Amino acid sequence: MPPAMWEVRSPSFWRAVFAEFFATMIYVFFGLGASLRWGVGPLNVLQVALAFGLAAATLVQVLGHVSGAHVNPAVTFAFLVGAQLSLLRAAFYMVAQVLGGVAGAAVLYGLTPAAIRGNLALNTIHPGVTLAQATTVEIFLTLQFVLCFFATYDERHNGRVGSVALAIGFSLALGHLFGMYYTGAGMNPARSFAPAAITRNFSNHWVYWVGPILGATLAGLLYDFVLCPRMRGLAERLAILKGEQVTHRAPGAGTEPAAKPGPVSGL
C-alpha cells in the first residue's frame, strides 16, 4: 500500500485533520469576537492580545496531543519545511485550518448584531505603514511565534520547564501587542482570510499570506539548521515528507505516524 494511502486510511489522521478544523474555528470565533467594537473609543489592544493568546493556549492544551494544534497554515508550513510531518498531512491541515477559520467567522457574523459587526475585525494596514513595512512586520511577528512553537514542541528538550500551552499563548499575545498598531497582527493566514472572505474585502490581503509564510519558513530553517540542528540526511527528510517512515513525532506533528508501521527513528 502506498505510504500516503496508509495515512489517509488511518482514523487518527482524520481525527487530527478535524481537530485542526475545529481548533481554528474556535480560535477565530473567540479572537475576532474579542476584537469587535461594542462601544465608542479606541480598541483595547491588551484585550485583543489576551483573547488570541488565551485561545491559542487553551487549544494547545486541549488538542496538542491530537494534531499538534497548529491552528495556523504558517505554523504547519514551518513544520513541513523542517520535515516534521508529511506533505499530505500538511496539505490537509492547511485546508482544514482555512475552512475552520471561515466557519468560525461565519458563526460570529450570524451571532453578532449588524451594527456591531463592522468589518469583522478584518486585518488592515495602518495608513502610515507601507506594504513593504507591513510585510516585514508580519515576517517578524510570525518568526518569533514559530520559533516559540518549535522550541516548546521540541522533544529533545528533556529539561524544559513551564507550560508549553502558556508559552505559545504568551508568544502570540506578544505579537499582537506590537503588531496591532502596524498591521492588525495577522500572524495567521487562516485568521486573516476568514473575515476577508465573509466581508469580501481582500484589500492588500496578500501581505497576510506572504509575511507569515516567509516568517514561518525563516523560523523553521533557523531553528532546525542553525539554533538547534537535527542531524538527519536528505534521504530521511524526503522519506518523512513522503510519509514513508514512522518517526519520533514531536507534538507539533500530532500523534499519528508519518505513514506506515516500522522502526522508530528521526525527529
From TrEMBL:
<dbReference type="GO" id="GO:0016324">
    <property type="term" value="C:apical plasma membrane"/>
</dbReference>
<feature type="transmembrane region" description="Helical">
    <location>
        <begin position="164"/>
        <end position="183"/>
    </location>
</feature>
<dbReference type="Pfam" id="PF00230">
    <property type="entry name" value="MIP"/>
</dbReference>
<keyword id="KW-1003">Cell membrane</keyword>
<dbReference type="InterPro" id="IPR000425">
    <property type="entry name" value="MIP"/>
</dbReference>
<comment type="similarity">
    <text>Belongs to the MIP/aquaporin (TC 1.A.8) family.</text>
</comment>
<dbReference type="InterPro" id="IPR023271">
    <property type="entry name" value="Aquaporin-like"/>
</dbReference>
<keyword id="KW-0813">Transport</keyword>
<dbReference type="GO" id="GO:0005212">
    <property type="term" value="F:structural constituent of eye lens"/>
</dbReference>
<feature type="transmembrane region" description="Helical">
    <location>
        <begin position="92"/>
        <end position="111"/>
    </location>
</feature>
<feature type="transmembrane region" description="Helical">
    <location>
        <begin position="206"/>
        <end position="227"/>
    </location>
</feature>
<keyword id="KW-0965">Cell junction</keyword>
<dbReference type="GO" id="GO:0015250">
    <property type="term" value="F:water channel activity"/>
</dbReference>
<feature type="transmembrane region" description="Helical">
    <location>
        <begin position="131"/>
        <end position="152"/>
    </location>
</feature>
<dbReference type="InterPro" id="IPR034294">
    <property type="entry name" value="Aquaporin_transptr"/>
</dbReference>
<keyword id="KW-1133">Transmembrane helix</keyword>
<keyword id="KW-0472">Membrane</keyword>
<feature type="transmembrane region" description="Helical">
    <location>
        <begin position="12"/>
        <end position="33"/>
    </location>
</feature>
<keyword id="KW-0273">Eye lens protein</keyword>
<dbReference type="GO" id="GO:0070161">
    <property type="term" value="C:anchoring junction"/>
</dbReference>
<protein>
    <recommendedName>
        <fullName>Lens fiber major intrinsic protein</fullName>
    </recommendedName>
</protein>
<keyword id="KW-0812">Transmembrane</keyword>
<dbReference type="InterPro" id="IPR022357">
    <property type="entry name" value="MIP_CS"/>
</dbReference>
<comment type="function">
    <text>Aquaporins form homotetrameric transmembrane channels, with each monomer independently mediating water transport across the plasma membrane along its osmotic gradient. Specifically expressed in lens fiber cells, this aquaporin is crucial for maintaining lens water homeostasis and transparency. Beyond water permeability, it also acts as a cell-to-cell adhesion molecule, forming thin junctions between lens fiber cells that are essential for maintaining the ordered structure and transparency of the lens.</text>
</comment>
<feature type="transmembrane region" description="Helical">
    <location>
        <begin position="45"/>
        <end position="63"/>
    </location>
</feature>
